[in-house]
Amino acid sequence: MGWYIFIFISLIIFILLNLTLGSVIVPVKEIFNFFTGENTSKFVQDIMIPYRIPKVITAILSGVALSVCGLQMQTLFRNPLADPFILGISSGAGLGVAIFVMGFSAFGITLTSSLLASVGTAAAAWLGAFAVTILLLMVSSKLRDNTSLLIFGIMLGSVVSAVISLMQYFSSSSALKVFVLWTMGSFSGLNPAQIWVLFSLVLVGLALSVYNIKDLNALLMGEAYARSLGVNLENTRKRILVATTLLAGSVTAFCGPIGFIGIAVPHIARMLFRNADHKVLLPSAALLGAVIMVFADTIAQLPGQPGVIPINTVSALIGVPIILLIVLKSRFV
Amino acid sequence: MSRAKVINNVLELENVSLGYDKVIYSAINASAKSGEMIAVVGANGMGKSTLLRSLSGIIKYHRGIIRIDGENVSSYTPGELSIKISYVPSQSPRTKNLSLFDMVAAGCYNRSNWLGIIDNKEREFVNSTITKVGLTDFINRDSSMLSDGEFQRAAIARSLVQNSKIMLLDEPTAFLDIANRITTVKLLKEIASKEGKTIIFSTHDLLQAIKLCDKIWVMGHECFIEGTPGELIEKGAFDKMFKDSSLKFDSELFTFL
C-alpha cells in the first residue's frame, strides 16, 4: 500500500513538473490558478489548453498502455524481454506508416502536416499493427510453444524492417523525413478528437487486460499446468494478443514506436512489490508506466530550450539501464 | 450390468495410439477405478509422459478412445475436464515472488471469481491442504525458494486443491532424495486410500511401484501390459521392458533386490 501512495504522489509531482517546464516556464502557482479557475492570464491558457495538457494526457495514456501491454506479453511468452517491439507489432505499425507516407510520395504527393496526413498515419499504423497481430494469432495455433512464437515475432519484425529500409531507399527525401519523424516518437500534436480516440482504445484495452488477470496468474504455473487447471489456452492467448494490440497498436499509431518502456516498467513493478500476482502487478505497472513516461517527456522537452529531443532517445536512456540491470542481476525474473 | 462396469471404471483406454503426426506407441488397453494407485513403468523414451499428457487432455492422441466417467475425453471442455483430472508435471516452472499459498490456491481456478479471488471456504480448504502435505510453516514463503521436495509437495497440494477425481503425476519423485521420495509416495498412497482418488504416476522405481501400487501399466517394447504387481511378475511382463537386457524380473530377483 505504501508504494502505491508513493507512486501516486510522484505521478502528481511529475505531472506538475511536466506542465511547468518547457520552452517557457509556467510557475506552479499559475498552474494551480488555472485548475481552480481563478484569474489566469490568457498567456497561460494559450500554453496549457492546446499544448501542455494534451501532451501530458497522451504521455500518461502511452505509459499506462505500453507497460500493461509489456506485462501481459512477458507472462504469456514466459520471457522477461517480451514486449510489442520484440514481437513485431510495432514493426507492423511502422510498415503501415511507411506504406502510407512513402507510398503517397511515389505518386508525387507529399504529405506534410495536413489533417489527412495525421489521421491517415494513425490509421495506417493501426492497420499494420493489427495485421501483424492477426498473423501472430493464426500462427499461434500452429506453433505450440511460446518460444517458437517469440522467434516468429522477431523474424517477422526483421523482415518488416528490411522492407521498410528498402522503401526508404527509394522514397523522396520529404516523405522520408515525415516517416523518420514518426519513428522518433512524440506526444505533442494530438488534437482533442485524437486524444479521445486514443483514450477510448486504451480504456477498452485496459478493461480486457483486467479481465485477463485470472488467466495470466494461471499461466505463471506453466502452460501445461494452466491447461490442466481448466484454462482454455487458445482463447486466453487470443484475448491477451487482442488486448496488447489495442494498447500498443493505438499508442504506436498516434505517438510513434516508443521502445523499452514496455519491457522495463513491469520489472520495476516486480522489484518494488515483490509479488507475482497480476492483481498487484497490473495496476502498479500502469501507474509506474504513467510516472516514467511523464518524466521522460519532461526531459524530452528540454526545459528552457526551444527544441525537443525524440521521446525514443529518452525512453532508451531510461529503459536500457534498467533492462541491463535486470539481465545482470538475476537470470530469471 | 455392463453399465455398472462403466461407472465403476473412472478411466478407460481402448486401443489408444499415442502421438500426433506420428504414432509413437500403440494398442494401449487399460482401466482405472477410484481409489486405485497405478504406476506407469517403461524404459526411457517409451512414451510414459506422452501417455499422461494425452490422458490429461494437454495434447491430442492419435487413435482409440480415452473415456473418463464413461465419456470420451475430447467431449469435455477444458473446464469440465479439470474437475475430472489434474496433472502434475515432472518439473513445474518456478515463479519468483509467488507465495506458497498463492501457488496452491491456483488450483481453485475453476471455483474462483472472474478476477481469480476465492472465498473464505476455499481459503480454508487451501490452508488445510497445505497442512496435509506438511508445509504449514512455509505458507507465506516465496514458493520459488522451496527445496525440490517441498516444491513437489506444493505442486501435489495444488493438484489436490483442484479436487479432481483422477490425479496424474509425471515422475513425481525423479528429482527427490530418498527421504523426500518416501514422504511423497506415502502422501500419494494416503490420498488414494483415504480420499478415494485415482492416482496414476510414472516412475523408474520398479520396486516402489511393486510395493505400493494396486496396479502397474507396463509400457513394454513389444506391447502394453496391465496387471497387479503379482500377476505381472508371474507373467514376466517386466522382462520385456528393456530391449537389450537379459534380466529376468522374477520373484527371485525381487528377493535379491
Note down, in words, how this protein is organized.
The complex is a heterodimer of chains A (333) and B (257). Chain A contains 13 helices and no strands. Chain A is mostly helical. Chain A has one domain (2-329): ABC transporter involved in vitamin B12 uptake, BtuC (Orthogonal Bundle). In chain A, helix 3 (42-76) packs across helix 11 (261-273) and helix 12 packs across helix 13 (311-329). With 257 residues, chain B is an alpha/beta fold. Chain B has a single domain (2-256), classed as P-loop containing nucleotide triphosphate hydrolases (Rossmann fold, 3-Layer(aba) Sandwich), CATH 3.40.50.300. Chain B contains ten helices and ten strands. Chain B has a six-stranded mixed beta sheet, sandwiched between helices. In chain B, strand 4 and strand 5 form a beta hairpin. The longest helix of chain B is centred in the C-terminal third of the chain and has 18 residues, at 178-195. The radius of gyration of chain B is 19 Å and the shape is globular. In chain B, 42% of the residues are buried. Chain A binds chain B through residues 78, 210-211, 213-214, 217-218, 220-222, 224-225, 227-233, 270, 273-277, 279, 330, 332-333, and chain B through 53, 56-58, 77-79, 81-83, 85-89, 92-98, 102-103, 106-107, 109-110, 112, 114-117, 158, 162.
Number of helices of chain B: 10
Low-confidence stretches of chain A: none
Radius of gyration of chain A: 20 Å
CATH architecture of chain A: Orthogonal Bundle
